[in-house]
Specification:
Length: about 350
Amino acid sequence: KIEKDSANIKSGVRHGKTLGSPISLWIENKDWENWTTAMAIEPVNEKDDIKRQTKIVPGHADFPGTLKYNHKDVRNVLERASARETAARVAVGSICKKFLMEIGIDIKSRVISIGWEKTSVTNVDQINWEHVENSIVRSTNTKEEQSFTNVIDQAKKERTTIGGVFQVIGFGIPLGLGDYIQWDNKLDGKIAQSMMSINAVKGVEIGNGFNNTEKYGNSVQDIIVPNSKDERKFTQKTNHAGGLEGGMSNGNNIIVNVAVKPIATMTKPLPSVDIITGEIVEAAYNRSDICQVARACPIGEAMLAITLTEVVLEKFGGDSIQEIKRNYKAYISSFKEYGK
């Protein structure tokens, strides 16, 4: 709650419009002055190095990172591995979201589970987005909000943490982003990688991916029917595939479910070791959350926005918004050749 930082644009924008030159963003954290000595670039006296840490936190980047880079202070790892670095991604993602809206793409997110409590709203057309945006846990309705907060309160009482799943949805996605021809051009692969790069994320599902494995094939494929009102000239009756088939967008909403593990840092620390002495100790504690699933939502939105911006520019790229829009409209108009 203490981190209410904002991003300031330092270059690349004039009179509210981008110039084509690099955009630089500056985010100043209110707490940074308290860390000027602890994170100083120049050497400091050992007595002044009060933030030095050698106790490992199980489940964090501390253990592999410290040994990998031959550090003698775990803080060299944990500060960069902190989710604070995602503030820059969210700032960049906000610019990408503005760009994508120029061709009708909108990105939203919500929490669909906290611990063992899950949403009952599976149809994206039934989501109350006004409630989501005003909910501290980004729930779909009041009943969910209560059940989610109850789980978090219970975890807090037990001095532990809890995870969950959030959902990111891309609306207005045109057919044909990404490719099937080469493995590293597949859009679902790019989206999965971008989501897995978010701190504490341990799983990514496109559409009904995991649920589909429990059903017969004739009940999970998205049946295609003619539809002259659809810009594709066809419509799929369902969206089990989550808007992606063969590594390409198919014109439906892109739906991504992202699993977030419980935070490793707890107010009741787990048993651990001192990386230098080898002694058995309690894990270190640094300020953290009980549950970060709702806070991960804007990061997920940003990562989808960044990924989609990349493939949109690849597909419709030009030197100006006007040129990109012309290319986009020309491409969409080519669908008129089908379904006559």
